[in-house]
Amino acid sequence: MHYSDYGLANTKTLLKRAMRDGYAVPAFNFYNMETLTAILNASQITQSPVILAVSEGALQYMGDDILMGLIRGAQYKRGTVALHLDHGHSFEICKRATDLGFSSVMFDGSALPLDKNISESRRIADYVHKFDVSLETELGVLAGIEDENTKSDIHSYTDPALVKEFIKQTQTDSLAVAIGTSHGAYKRKSPNESLRFDILEQIAKNIPNTPLVLHGASNIPQKYIKQINKYGGDIKNARGIAPAQIRHVIKLHIAKVNVESDSRFAFTAAIRKTFTNDPSEFNPRTYLENAREEMTKNCIDEIQNIMGSGYKI
């Protein structure tokens, strides 16, 4: 089925609107019914467009039929929600997502030599554009670990001198840039570290009509770290990107901001609290509902106080 049969939006349309009106569309990752409905509940409450992000690992975890069954049964306003493949590493996985009914895909060729990144990106663009599916690509490398398929020990900033030709040759619809963020929960050694706004400014100047994407942008709310540790966890030195820095980059053509770790921490903090406060609890509906509610609250907070995307639909 085509994504329009599900009432899904083309990511390109959402991001162009965000660039025009000066906000970012949040891309929240999900892996099951609870995390999906948490995102959609937050979207409905705040009247915000959202991008439902699915990594290769999450797609493998849920399976094609269950994933698309969840989308088919979900409730959302037509044209306000996109379904996005996050960090696809091959033509095959991008084709699979397109054929399933995703409305956008990301090809992550950042670890490849530049010429190979360009050729594979263009190959994927030629396929997905036949179905009016959007393509996001990445130039530069983010360090850190997102899941078993997306991890790197190195970091390299996006070279502003390369972006214009990269966009021209690949025909990509949006570009993920490396300006100092990283995947996972350990993004900062100190709270004083800053993103490279100077690099982003030059990129935006060189490709002013291309929506830019920020990966690894969770702010890691410390209240969840404290709650997890209070109720038996052992999370040390987890630190994210300051919300003020995210709000600033949104002014510089960042039209899509990816968030995953924050949702994981909110979900986990609620479950740990439930189990500690009621050791006799064994009904998954109870503790998963508590986790869904906490993740919803966090998504609402980030939509309202970081993305600026509330009341845009």
Can you describe this structure?
- The chain has a single domain (3-307), classed as Aldolase class I (TIM Barrel, Alpha-Beta Barrel), CATH 3.20.20.
- It contains twelve helices and ten strands.
- The protein has helices spanning 11-21, 33-46, 56-62, 64-73, 91-100, 114-128, 160-170, 197-206, 222-230, 243-250, 261-277, 284-307; strands spanning 25-29, 50-55, 81-88, 104-107, 134-139, 144-147, 150-152, 174-177, 212-214, 254-259.
- It has an eight-stranded parallel barrel, surrounded by nine helices. A two-stranded antiparallel ribbon has the order 6-7.
- Helix 5 (91-100) links the parallel strand 3 (81-88) and strand 4 (104-107).
- The longest helix is centred in the last third of the chain and has 24 residues, at 284-307.
- The chain is globular and about 60 Å long.
Q: How are the secondary structure elements laid out?
A:
Blueprint lengths: L10 H11 L3 E5 L3 H14 L3 E6 H7 L1 H10 L7 E8 L2 H10 L3 E4 L6 H15 L5 E6 L4 E4 L2 E3 L7 H11 L3 E4 L19 H10 L5 E3 L7 H9 L12 H8 L3 E6 L1 H17 L6 H24 L6
Parallel strand pairs: 1-2, 1-10, 2-3, 3-4, 4-5, 5-8, 8-9, 9-10
Antiparallel strand pairs: 6-7
Helix pairs in contact: 2-12, 5-6, 7-8, 9-11, 11-12
